[in-house]
Amino acid sequence: MSLDDLPTLRAALEAHGLWAKKAFGQHFLLDLNVTRKIARLARVGDGDHVIEVGPGPGGLTRALLETGARVTAIEKDERFRPLLGEVAQACERLTLVFDDALAADEAVIAAGAPAHVVSNLPYNVGTPLLIKWLTGAWTPASMTLMFQREVADRITEGPGGRAYGRLGVLAQATCRAERVLEAPARAFTPPPKVDSAVVRLEPRPDRPSPERLEALQRVTAAAFGQRRKMLRASLKPLAGGGLGGEDLVRAAGLDPQARAEVIPVDGFLALADAWLARS
Fold it and tell me: Which residue from 120, 117, 227, 210 is spatially nearest to 167, judged by alpha carbons?
């Protein structure tokens, strides 16, 4: 049996009596033309290791396997074990891990070698997973990820934009983030209430050190936690109260009266450095 011998995704779902679970944020991508385009955008091929989260019926999984890549698919929903097992029987380059991706240890899965993350992420865990991969000890070789459009906006938006916030700062400080594909709701089964988009992220060569990244998380959490306040006020608790907030902002070379939404990524890195210097 080969990948070409597998039934269509719809036929496989019907044969196993499967449907999307709202509690898991599932929306199936059954159009193989779309899944193949995502696989091409991921720029993976022979010899590459891909980690996929939430494969569901395996549409994107099949497209990734067609590139010649080796795929480890992490699925929380045990209902898909028989269906995905059929895909694994058709292609020995597929390894199945039935676990919660938020708890999975990607460093162990990757076994010390580079691995790319390519996923149509379940809507309810997309942001926590991205933050895990952006800030955790394990760094993907690249990420090509489907999100709700509003989340994709938050990842790629620049300072001054309505969607610009903490997620965008963390993503852009650690990666080059590019929106590469729009996916209307009608591309999914069942159709979600919002459109989606694919974002590709490649780690920056000047990625912040773990210490600097931890400081960046602290600074952005304080600044965007009260985003309508001026930085001198929102950062005051982080700087120890008093005039500490204003002093901290000035030490970073920024305007204490500015608000978080207009500060560029480099400005937040300067704030992180200034906070580290005081710690």
Answer: 227
Q: How far apart are CA 8 and CA 268, in angstroms?
A: 48
pTM: 0.93
- Taking the CA of residue 73 as centre, how many other CA atoms within 13 Å lie in the half-sphere pointing to its CB? 30
What digits encode the pLDDT tens for the residues 62-100? 999 999 999 999 999 999 999 999 999 999 999 999 999
- Return the closest-CA partner of residue 184 out of 197, 172, 173: 197
The per-residue pLDDT for 214 is 96
pLDDT higher than 90, residue 23: no
Q: How many CB atoms lie within 10 A of CB 22?
A: 11
Question: Which parts of 67-191 fold into alpha helices (H)?
Answer: 81-90, 106-110, 126-135, 149-156, 166-174
Burial 211-224 (b: 16+ CB within 10 A, else e): ebbebbbbbbebbb
Residue with tokens 């865990």: 125
* Phi-psi domain of 112 (left: phi exceeds 0; alpha: psi -120 through 50; beta: other): left
